[in-house]
Design brief:
Structural class: mainly alpha
Order of helices and strands: HHHHHHHH
Length: 244
Amino acid sequence: MNYSENPYAAGNYGSFAINADADARASFITKTYAHLVGAVVAFVVLETILLAVLPMEQIVQSIFATRWGWLAVLGGFMVVSWVAESWARSSVSLGKQYAGLGLYVFAEALIFTPLIWFASMNVQGVLVPAALTTIGLFAALSAVVFFTRADFSFLRGILIFGTIAAVGFIVVAALTGAMLGGNSMIAVVFIYAMIALACGYILYHTSNILHHYQTTQYVAAALALFASVALLFWYILQLFMSRD
């Protein structure tokens, strides 16, 4: 997203948070983080339901039966994510924005089920520490942005390059049979790199809340933050699993 030509500027979104009066800016930030908390709670509830009703052992075996299974899941997730994000940015309907956020949370819960099922079945006691570490990192990075009021939009190019490189690496690893799980050196280095990428996204999206979102875009802002937190949790959980 190029914030020098902000796509959110089109439409009747209201004033940018950075230019709004103190009350409007505070209301926007409060709504954004309230929706983020709501998305996290919905994710936990959905994850609990999915793990309880889905035949996870058969699903995991089916997904990883071939090299293409997980790539197909990731491809479908990327398509759904694009649709959800476009809905969340809608200036026409608030209901469509909420539908986008809800669709994205459901997609994240669905794609997380194999990882959380595997962690709960095979590596006891890692879910809570991984979740607390994710919350702590998110809080620390958010505090950096809010206390410094720095604009981290310069990270955009780096994050795009890092994301493309990561997707390419995952595809090549899947096609060649290379292992990105476990505690191999390649896997651990990749996990740390992805944690750094997720931290970069948190800095980027949090600074955009201050500088580049408009005051009525709290649903889209919450979705962006939730996506960053989910990415961070995914790889922190893998890191804890690899250590055990």
